[in-house]
Amino acid sequence: MKLKKALAAVLLLVSLTAGLCGCESAAQDYYTQIDNAFVKTLDNSGDNMKYEYRLTAYDAQGTAKTVAFKTSRELKQDAYLCLWIVPVRGVVRWEQVAEDQMPEPVRAVYRRN
Question: Percent of the chain beyond pLDDT 70?
Fold first, then answer.
């Protein structure tokens, strides 16, 4: 019986750790539009990520969130991105998408702007 409880505790701990550390399977999609007025050049970046964006992004329901992410180059002005955001880690990946690939609530936000 003690072995079962210990095993259950270990499995719970592993599950919680994976969720908090930010496995990409826990990522949530957010969408944003590039505005190079909000890019900051990083002087002493130890990695290849020389630019940092701080933009408003929207989930599939159109709920806004401010996100920050780094890139190795300036991105195309007005391009739409899908961002994969993981709890604790933040943006772990992004890709450019067409406007019609975004959920309707997100497109509605950009039509109003």
Answer: 77
